[in-house]
Description:
- The chain is an alpha+beta fold.
- It has a single domain, classed as NADH Oxidase, CATH 3.40.109.10.
- 44% of the residues lie in helices and 16% in strands.
- Strands 1, 2, 3, 4 and 5 form a 5-stranded antiparallel sheet that branches.
- The protein starts with a helix and ends with a helix.
- It comes from Mammaliicoccus stepanovicii.
Amino acid sequence: xxxxxxxxxxxxxxxxxxxxxxxxxxxxxxxxxxxxxxxxxxxxxxxxxxxxxxxxxxxxxxxxxxxxxxxxxxxxxxxxxxxxxxxxxxxxxxxxxxxxxxxxxxxxxxxxxxxxxxxxxxxxxxxxxxxxxxxxxxxxxxxxxxxxxxxxxxxxxxxxxxxxxxxxxxxxxxxxxxxxxxxxxxxxxxxxxxxxxxxx
Length: 200
């Protein structure tokens, strides 16, 4: 994989050809995207994969009737889990198993993480942050595999949660369409680092 080439060629594709992507391939892409970083390795992301006609229709209605929902092979509903830290006991044990944490530090880690997530803003920030890191990984991995994607924020969160029976601890962060398609115009300009970065 040529990472820079993948980054440069990734575009937000809004027009898709009819193309079926198997669930095996979609699962493989998700498995690779799960190598994303996350605070304390909490892996806050959850994903609903919308790939049937019935599910596409429901999401289409909840996403301002954007036709790419129907035309794309599938759409990922990217969710951030507010309660991901509930698994910290298991994560601590996994860290110990892999040599990342001394056994005697286990209880301290668990206490520290639980204290951090007593703050509701910390819960939400980390849920969205973890899910977003996963989402970017998923788009780059999909691009490298030959698939076009488009991140979307144009949807009604309440309707999406209702349509797919999503529990309250999962925050709809974005949608990502995936399929075969292309952009035929030039990339819009990007600000250079000199306009947004400051060395201190």
